[in-house]
Amino acid sequence: MWEWIVQVLSAAVGTAAFALLFSVPPSCYLRCGVIGGLGWLCWLSLDRLGLGTVVSIFDATALVVFCSRYSAVRRRCPVTLFLIPGIFPLVPGAGIYWTAYYVVTDQVALAAQKGFSTLKAAVAIVLGILLVFELPQGLFRTLAEGREK
Amino acid sequence: MERDDRLALDAAALAGEILLESGAEIFRVEDTIYRIAAAYGAEEAEAFVLSSGIFLTSEGEGRKTFARVKHIPLVGARLDRVSAVNQLSREIEQGLHTPEAAMERLEAIRTMPRLPAWLQVLASGVGSGCFCILFGGDWADALAAAAVGLLLYLYLLFVVKGRLSKIATNITGGALVTLAAVLLHRVGLGHHLDMMIIGSIIPLVPGVAFTNGIRDIADEDYIAGSVRLLDVLLVTFCIAFGVGAVMAARHALTGL
Predict the structure, then answer these.
(1) Which end of chain B lies in a sparser environment, N or C, as judged by fewer CB atoms within 10 Å?
(2) pLDDT band, very low/low/confident/very high, at A149 (cuts 50, 70, 90)
(3) Residue A111 maps to a domain
(4) What is the C-alpha separation between B169 and B152, in angstroms, rounded?
(5) pLDDT band at residue A61, thresholds of 50, 70 and 90?
(6) Between residues 7 and 46 of chain B, which touch chain A (CB distance below 8 Å)?
(7) Interface touch B214/A126, C-beta < 8 Å
(8) Considering the domain boundaries, does residue A34 fall inside one?
């Protein structure tokens, strides 16, 4: 339990820190952090359930994009503000590192394996983004209006 | 008397320029240009936007011909400017600003200051530490990663300052991070070298180009999207090269 709290909080604070680096307006830091934390919580839960990296990353990305689009309509500002920081925890930084590490230490089979799984994770993110951007804008408007009433 | 849309189109072009250099998607840039032009009655405007340039022309019955080609290098992620231009374009559509006033507002948006450097350095450190924990590091690793993340941004803001090419920046950035992490690990701060390095290279990862590239391709802006994804690949290889070079040296010296 404690581990989960630490993980989700780190994701949220980390996302907010990157929002600052990308000069997101300060009024959006909190929302960015929440989106990043939710995305990581989704990834963590699905991964622990044993659904595999690709499915977990795909679903977590889809959730992040959905929340970002919703927030963009609610706050009347570009979706990029939430999407770019929110997606950061899911970017396969570790995969890039291990691939480079195995390449320089001459462990070619491991390098190929890591490289391929990094690529799979990247493709899962791409598909997650594509899918949720196909949803009509009207859906998010309706959702946001429903909340404002 | 021919109708002259120059001022309106200047405003539309400047809005597009700020959006593009601050990290907006192509779709948003084109959409904003059309909206502003149409709000001032210049419906004839045609815009073509690439990841590094804007072509804007306007001609028609009883109008002066207008043409502008502008090369626009990416300045860096300034999402506050994207947000401000977006807000301004809404207000222009509502008829709240004359073209002259809009130009003034756009110039003001363009000179909007970034957050102070110390805050960015701090954010880089906090971000690195947090991401280190996400990738499985413990508290000591996170502290070490935060220190390396601070150092990385100090390097980027005060040593590089845009003087190095993108390739050189990312190779040296990756190498610096790895070197600092190796040294910290050597003196006993941090337990897992791999987690420390992974956490602290994250500020270099090209997240803006990656996300925008995918979205451009989804919007069928294939040229801009491919260029951005190519940029992502290049930057990623450079980071990996920088990390790899230092790790190879360490491997050769210590056999680890």
Answers:
(1) N
(2) low
(3) no
(4) 11
(5) very high
(6) 23-25, 28
(7) yes
(8) yes
Domain total in chain A: 1
Give contacts of B 110-129 with A, CB under 8 A. 114-115, 119-120, 123-124, 126-127, 129
Cβ(A29)–Cβ(A51) under 8 Å? no
Mark which residues 54-83 of B lie under 8 Å from A by CB: 77-83
**Cβ within 8 Å of B, A 47-66:** none
Can you give the pTM of this predicted structure?
0.89
Range of the domain at A28: 2-90+125-148
Task: List chain A residues with CB under 8 Å of B126.
Answer: 13-14, 17
Quickly state the pLDDT bin for B22 (edges 50, 70, 90). Answer: very high
Q: Identify whether the C-beta of residue B203 lies closer than 8 Å to the C-beta of residue B127.
A: yes
CB-CB under 8 Å, A20 with B202: no
Q: What is the DSSP secondary-structure string of B66-93?
A: EEEEEE-------HHHHHHHHHHHHHHH
Interchain CB contact of B246 with A (< 8 Å):
no
Q: How many other CB atoms sit within 10 Å of the CB of residue B249?
A: 15
Report, as an integer, the average pLDDT of A47-58. 91
Q: List the single residue in A7, A40, A84 with the smallest CB-CB distance to B207.
A: A84
Question: B144 CA to chain A: closest CA distance, Å?
Answer: 15
The model's confidence at residue A2, banded by pLDDT at 50, 70 and 90, is confident
CA–CA distances in Å: residue B208 to residues A40, B56, B152? 19, 25, 18
Provide mean pLDDT across the span B206-216: 89
The answer as to whether A106 is a domain residue is: no
CB atoms within 10 A of CB B147: 20
Taking the CA of residue B56 and the nearest CA in chain A, the distance in Å comes to 23
Within-domain flag for A52: yes
pLDDT band of residue A14 (cuts 50, 70, 90) is: very high
Residue of A nearest to B75 (CA): A22
